[in-house]
Design a protein that fits this description.
By secondary structure, the chain is mainly alpha-helical. It folds into two domains: 66 residues, Winged helix-like DNA-binding domain superfamily/Winged helix DNA-binding domain (Arc Repressor Mutant, subunit A, Orthogonal Bundle); 162 residues, Up-down Bundle (Four Helix Bundle (Hemerythrin (Met), subunit A)). Helix content is 71%, strand content 3%. The chain contains eleven helices and two strands. Strands 1-2 form a two-stranded antiparallel sheet. The longest helix has 29 residues. It is elongated. The chain starts with 10 loop residues before the first helix and ends with a helix.
Length: 243
């Protein structure tokens, strides 16, 4: 593991990157203890505080864990798909907020990804996944439900659809689409949408999944995409008039 002392890049970031690469490439394996701070400082020719900052970066990414005591130290963590989803969501949210991605592009991406998992969800969804979706549909129809609560329920509904594919890689990959893109889209469309229309489309999708009809599930998602795109256009048009 090496770093470039002449590079303008932060040394702690370079160290974290070097250790991360060693983990990814299998040179450091799960549960293996990393060298001590003093040993790492000597290896990278930096101060111990710099090493400590690098280890904090790795811990924040759940790549390592620390243990105290005589047998303590920093150890390579076993990263799970579930634990990694939070980072995926955060990264997706930042990418969308920092870059000029149009609503239409984000919406197209999200629903295309969701439709891609519809066949597996229709085939593999369990009674628990269906129950979760039905519970959210019921919740969405409750009088007095706030816009924030409706949006959160919307996300949970689609999370159940994606998880119904029962494929951890798909759930991880779509975490950003459902839990990052969807809330951002909801922020734009929530004032204009017809809740009854959204609920009806959710019922259509849930019915299709219950019937294990992949084509009807995809059709329901397409109808929901069209509804969402139309709402966004209405919102942007209204803003343009006011502006």
């Amino acid at each position: 593991m090496k770093i470039d002392h002449d590079s303008p890049a932060d040394l702690s970031a370079q160290i974290a990157s070097a250790i991360r690469e060693a983990i990814i490439e299998g040179r450091l394996i799960v549960d293996e203890r990393l060298p001590s701070e003093a040993e790492l400082a000597e290896h990278f020719e930096v101060s111990r505080p710099t090493v400590r900052e690098a280890l904090k970066r790795l811990a924040a990414q759940s790549l390592i864990r620390t243990q105290r005591g005589a047998t303590g130290g920093a150890f390579v963590n076993r990263l799970s798909y579930e634990a990694a989803q939070t980072q995926q969501i955060t990264t997706s949210t930042l990418l969308l907020s920092m870059n000029a991605v149009s609503f239409e592009t984000a919406c197209e991406a999200r629903f295309s990804l969701e439709r891609a998992c519809a066949p597996l969800s229709a085939q593999r969804r369990t009674a628990d996944h269906l129950a979760a979706m039905r519970a959210e549909i019921h919740r969405q129809g409750q009088p007095g439900l706030t816009d924030e609560a409706f949006c959160a329920s919307d996300v949970t509904f689609h999370r159940a659809l994606v998880d119904g594919a029962r494929n951890p890689v798909i759930s991880y990959q779509l975490a950003g689409a459902v839990e990052a893109m969807q809330p951002l889209m909801n922020m734009i469309t929530f004032t204009a949408r017809d809740r009854a229309r959204i609920i009806a489309l959710h019922e259509q999708i849930a019915d299709a999944l219950e019937a294990q009809d992949a084509e009807a599930t995809a059709k329901g998602l397409s109808a929901l995409e069209t509804e969402t795109q139309d709402l966004a256009r209405d919102v942007f048009a209204a803003r343009a008039v006011k502006g």
